[in-house]
Amino acid sequence: MRNFIVAGLLLFISLPAYAESARQMLETFLLNTTSMQSKFEQRLFNQKNILLQESSGTFILKRPGRFFWDYIRPYPQQIVSNGKKIWLYDSELEQVSVKGYDQLLAGAPVILLDQKNDLGRDFIVEDKGLENRLYWVKLIPRNKSGDYSLIEVAMLDGKLVRMIFVDSFEQTTIISFDNIRINAAVDDGLFDFKPPPGTDVIGDF
């Protein structure tokens, strides 16, 4: 009986195990996700890895093209897109900047979250596999004129939980997502920003 159990274990160990790659996890997430809601924490480091700034808030995404970054700490700010326009609102300055969504470059991090095309079209992709219990994908934008030279994405349980960006000044931004909800209903009206009375509007409104 003991020999039979040992033989069975050896047979099980010898069977080929299928494990979805980190790149496949990311591509599946991008293909199947219609909305995402979460809290986030963001940290900015300089080229010497010295912490320059910490911020936090909530993030809402509804594809295609719509997102809402609501920064709560340390200063209230909002970045809102309805897929046609993007508003950058600073309540303390009572100022909002407006630009067209199509002004975003292909290598911009937010474009990655809206991606349904093959990742290889806009990025050089490296599957880094499992590191510290997270599955990592390294992305180098093919568009060299963008603000970011490197993006790294971490997946856990089929969800995007961390993003790392390195910009042209070699500063690093790390965004960690928590309390993530995928494909929950989101009201479209959230993404049509209306500047409060008295707000100074800069750009094509």
Provide keyphrases for this structure.
205 residues; disordered N terminus; outer membrane lipoprotein receptor (LolB), chain A; alpha+beta
Q: Could you characterize the architecture of this molecule?
A:
- The chain is α+β, with helices and mostly antiparallel strands.
- It has helices spanning 2-14, 22-32, 109-113, 119-122, and strands at residues 35-45, 51-62, 66-73, 77-82, 85-90, 95-100, 123-131, 134-141, 148-156, 159-167, 172-182, 200-203.
- Strands 7-8-9-10-11-1-2-3-4-5-6-12 form a 12-stranded mixed β-sheet.
- The longest helix is centred in the N-terminal third of the chain and has 13 residues, at 2-14.
- The chain is globular.
Order of helices and strands: HHEEEEEEHHEEEEEE
Number of domains: 1
Given this structure, which CATH class is correct? Answer: Mainly Beta
Kindly state the percentage of residues in helix: 10-25%
The strand count comes to 12
Radius of gyration: 20 Å
Which CATH architecture is right? Answer: Clam
CATH topology: outer membrane lipoprotein receptor (LolB), chain A
Question: Main sheet?
Answer: 12 strands, mixed
Strand percentage? over 45%
Number of helices: 4
What structural class should be given to the helix and strand makeup?
Answer: alpha+beta
Instruction: Label the overall shape.
Output: globular
Mean pLDDT: 85
Oligomer category? single chain
Q: Which stretches of 5+ consecutive residues score pLDDT under 50?
A: 1-18
| First-residue to last-residue Cα separation | 78 Å
Spatial arrangement of strands, main beta sheet = 7-8-9-10-11-1-2-3-4-5-6-12
